[in-house]
Request: fold
Amino acid sequence: MNLKLKALKKSLWVYHLSAGSCNNCDIEILDLLTPRFDVERFGIILAASPRHADVLLCTGIVNKKCVERIKEVYEQTPKPCVVVAIGACACSGGIFRDGYQMAGPLNKIIPVDVYIPGCPPKPESIIAGIVKFLRELK
Amino acid sequence: MNAIYNFVYFILSFLVLSIIGLFVSWIDRKITARIQWRVGPPWYQNFADIIKLSGKEILIPENGNKFIFLFSPILGLISATICGTIIFLVLKKNFGFGGDLILFVYLLIIPSLSIILGGSSSGNVLASVGISRELKLLLSYELPFICGIIIPAIKSGSTTSLIEIIKYQEINGSNILSFSGILGFIIILISSVGKLGVVPFDLAEAETEIAGGSLIEYSGILLGFYKLTKAILFVVVPIFVVILYLGGSEVNSFGGFLIFLIKYLIVVILITLIRNTNPRLRIDQTLRFFWGWLTLIGILGILLTLSGV
Ligand code: SF4
Reply:
């Protein structure tokens, strides 16, 4: 395993992208950054701009207005980057899967690396999902 | 031969400065975490950040100026390293000339200017908000910063040479040990927080309002260069404050070096505490604060110094 990948695993900067969620998943993500869960001990911090980010945390069904924007943000993120789908909505559509605004679960639009289901997933399970992914990453 | 020697010295001091700087930035982050009742990042965190950034893609904005966009991070890094090299040589007392204090003030401005250049060449709206704030910030902290430099310069027998200031303090005790010295130390400490651009005065990068401000378009190793510049300034500016106000011991011996290290860490911790106990100010509040109270105290300090208190 090379040094740069090792460094990437130790310092993930996260960009939070909401694609039409009901806002509950976003609140859980914000919980992650509070002192109680303290993801900075894994080197994870919130980045302000997608140009600084290594991870896109996407929540929500992708509604029709969001499609272009999501593609844009994905292109603006410097590669290598990781896309995480958070919540049942982003993984499969969840309770909104038959909605008129539904433009696909996230993996129809951009390639997704990690799925974290739950409605909303607990902060603990988000951490667990990302840590499991990091262990698999080679 | 001499040129090669100087170049090697420059590269060496760059490496030493970045290692110390990244480590000290970790201390800063760790203290911040402990204050907020968190565990905080491991010691290699900042090194991992820089190595990771070096492996990322560099994106250049379409409607920006490509040359200036690529050039300005390097400019900032080089000028910060020159500051550090000079300060190392001054501490070893084999370099210095009358007026290097003034040269130093100019060199310390260049990293801010490089951020302004880079932000303005990236052609982003939020970046232009960021650079306008950075310019105003530069204008506002520079005045009290210079007041804080004039006070020890007068105290050490009206000199503009850093070595003279160090020598004066070795004979007569630190500059801080008087009323005007304390005033000057407070002023220069607060304005160096502005110079480092950390929290109460980080409005140029305000992540929650303007998404990284002037650095918004930077990615990959170019962003890493800016982070390194910040880290190196975290070494240079506190050492500068120590030289001006807390001098008074021989650095070349081992014991003296330890005492110097402790003084340096005290300044770093003071800056960290200021940063953790204050919310971000608006730009008009910043300007009023620096040009109002702080400059008034600075002028008072200069008058007191002139009258020998
Ligand atoms: S998964 Fe549940 S909580 Fe999350 S956005 Fe969808 S409906 Fe809301």
Observations:
- Chain B touches chain A through 34 residues (CB under 8 Å).
